[in-house]
Design goal:
10 strands; five-stranded mixed beta sheet; alpha+beta; globular
């Protein structure tokens, strides 16, 4: 019988080794996350979220759902980070609402607001639109949120989103153009490590929006014609292929670099 008296010194049974249970639970979650990700249907359109990447060939691989190189599928850690990003969006949206902002994030039927062009082969979905609020700014305004690790978050705070993360800036410009929201967008960045919030207004960049729209057209048209768009690099050792920092920009390793440079030194 278990002795529930405080400080009795009774042994309640063998303790499970923390490392063992931790590994088992994490492994089970990781298996489930990977299975869920693999069950999702691949996109069949050019996504506004990736058009700001430097390499048109990489964007085209993504659009055509070309299988990634072996070992380049999203790792469980990455899938966890994606999940945290989605949850972070809900958290910040809640904060904005209790602060008095009229934030619209979904239609009456629950679908996200967004746009599509080129017969549905080019699409984008926004985080939300601010209709009014307690802060003196122009309304209605696009709202876009990102949940970032501490290092990336500090970089955005220091240099601003347009310089530190041009891929996000391209996304903002496209949304502002296609959803007819030309007033400065409210960009928020949540620090996943400290839950600090960075906020900035991003003016509409019409030229950037046009350039990104032209990119989407180029990707779709080249794919229809069975042509490959040019790479952004001249050899596979380039940072845009292998990943890393270059000229103040972060490049994730290309998941198709092996296929792209197959047979080339």
């Amino acid at each position: 019988m278990i002795d529930l008296n405080h400080g009795s010194g009774c042994l309640y049974g063998e303790a499970t080794t923390p490392a063992t249970i931790a590994s088992a639970v994490s492994a089970a979650i990781d298996v489930a996350l990977v299975a869920r990700n693999r069950s999702e249907r691949p996109r069949t359109y050019v996504s506004s979220s990736g058009l700001g990447r430097d390499c048109l060939r990489q964007i085209q691989y993504d659009f055509l759902a070309v299988p990634k190189d072996e070992g380049q599928e999203f790792a469980p850690k990455t899938l966890r980070i994606f999940e945290a990003g989605h949850r972070g969006e809900d958290i910040v949206a809640g904060w904005l609402r209790i602060a008095g902002f009229d934030l619209r994030t979904a239609r009456a039927d629950g679908r996200q607001f967004g746009f599509e062009a080129l017969g549905g082969r080019f699409k984008g979905h926004i985080d939300g639109c601010l209709v009014s609020g307690p802060v003196a700014m122009d309304y209605p305004a696009l709202w876009e949120n990102k949940a970032l690790g501490a290092s990336s978050w500090k970089d955005v705070v220091k240099r601003g989103v347009s310089i530190a993360r041009p891929v996000y800036a391209a996304q903002l410009a496209l949304y502002q153009a296609y959803l007819d929201l030309p007033k400065p967008a409210l960009f928020t960045a949540l620090n996943r490590d400290t839950m600090e919030l960075h906020t900035e207004l991003v003016p509409f960049d019409a030229r950037l929006a046009q350039d990104m729209s032209d990119r989407a057209v180029a990707v779709v048209r080249a794919s229809e014609a069975g042509e490959w768009l040019p790479r952004a690099a001249s050899d596979p050792t380039a940072v845009v292929c292998r990943g890393g920092m270059s000229a103040g920009k972060w490049h994730a390793p290309c998941a198709w670099a092996g296929k792209c440079w197959e047979g080339r030194a």
